[in-house]
Amino acid sequence: MTPDDTRPETAESAALFARALAVTPGGVNSPVRAFNAVGGTPRFVQRASGAFLYDADGREYVDLICSWGPMLLGHAHPGVQAAVQEAVSRGTSYGTPTVPEVELAEEIVVRTPVEKVRFVSSGTEATMSAIRLARGFTGRELVVKFAGCYHGHVDALLAAAGSGLATLSVPGTPGVPVASTAATLVLPYNDPAAVERAFAEHGDEIACVITEASPGNMGVVPPLPGFNKMLAETCARHGALFVSDEVMTGFRVSRSGQWGLDGAREGWTPDLVTFGKVMGGGFPAAAFGGRADVMAMLSPEGPVYQAGTLSGNPVATTAGLATLRLATEEVYAGLDRAAGLLADEVDKALTEAGVAHVVQAGGNMFSAFLLDEPPTTDSVRDFAAASAQNVARYRAFFHAMLDQGVYLPPSAFEAWFLSSAHDDAVLDRVVSALPAAARAAAA
Ligand code: PLP
Fold this sequence. Notes:
The structure is a single chain. α2 (78-88) packs antiparallel against α12 and α7 runs parallel beside α8. The chain is globular. A hairpin with a 2-residue loop joins β1 and β2 (52-55). Helix content is 39%, strand content 14%. It has two domains: 8-72 and 328-442, Alpha-Beta Complex (Aspartate Aminotransferase, domain 1); 78-326, Type I PLP-dependent aspartate aminotransferase-like (Major domain) (Aspartate Aminotransferase, domain 2, 3-Layer(aba) Sandwich). It contains 16 helices and 13 strands. The strands form three sheets. The protein has a seven-stranded mixed sheet, sandwiched between helices. A four-stranded mixed sheet has the order 1-2-3-13. It has a two-stranded antiparallel sheet with strand order 11-12. With 443 residues, the protein is of the alpha/beta class. The chain has helices at 11-23, 78-88, 99-111, 123-138, 164-167, 178-182, 192-202, 227-238, 258-261, 263-266, 292-295, 314-326, 329-353, 383-386, 391-403, 424-442; strands at 45-49, 52-55, 60-63, 116-120, 142-146, 184-187, 206-212, 241-246, 272-275, 286-290, 357-362, 365-370, 406-407. It binds pyridoxal-5'-phosphate (PLP). Pyridoxal-5'-phosphate binds at residues 68, 122-124, 127, 150-152, 163, 212, 217, 245, 247-248, 276, 286.
């Protein structure tokens, strides 16, 4: 693998990428950061501020990745920075209980349906631990997941997963023992009949159903109205647990997450919820939580073992707490407005350029599916439909935006993220780049 972008304006990033390739597989520490799906050289970012990234060649980009979700308030928010600097001045990790962990747990319990919460360091750890707990609590082994949903690189959940696996078109991965996925049933998303059938056949063996609360890892494919409720009720009927993965949506699409948009209104609660991204404020912090009786099974209160040297790290939990405290209703209203506006403009630009497409939003997350033919349904509802997109068109769209200073996810299978720092002036810059990108996608 070599850097394939030799233009002078990317010379520094290309040189750094060459160094990275010599010492790191693929030159990146997480596959989606690479440009394998779109070609070219990933930009090495040296600093970020508000809605902008600045790369090693001195170029400025409007950031529509936001660190894959966490940066709800934009980069280097003064309120978060001050809290973090103050925390760092008191030391960085003690291996004892601390005040910020309690305060962040309290904030999460107030905002969401969980009664108790345990901190970990990544979303992967959160889903892995939630599944172990669900199996320990129910004494059952089968896990139901949905094609196109990504829950981190947990062995049992790397079957028909979205995000990097969808980007690289790999159905699973070598290194996962057959036994690890043998107890995983993969169903099509948004398909209540498939769920009913799975429970009719295996109802008393299913420990849990895990789903992205509103998927963003196959592009944005929100749940059809009532789908999450149906999952919660079906699980309850069969003594299985409903695990809602809010690693991406939690504290991003509303004060609590997707549950604030459906469960709170429809009157149901998940048994377990996983969180990450926004709750760490840009630091490695994640969590899982839920019903007090289920969480009581967790070590040291109960027999299900789970642990972590840096879990609840004082700097990370301070950053998360500062972020959540600054994420007011006005912040969410602003994000909804900005996402609605931008989604409409993307739709308009693609229509004017004659590119068949669906632009789809789940709360304030959205993405565009670029197609060869006009869609046969009004929405993309599952991974099969998401996979029908023309990735070559996205590649052209992506690079035309990047050349105009807008950094989109380098994959057609990812959500686009905004922050409260994406004000009207920033949105105008994105909007003015869209027509040329749409024309590039049409070519
Ligand atoms: N669950 C969801 C819904 C995610 O989007 C992700 C990551 O993108 C994860 C879990 C895994 O989180 P992490 O990358 O922090 O391990």
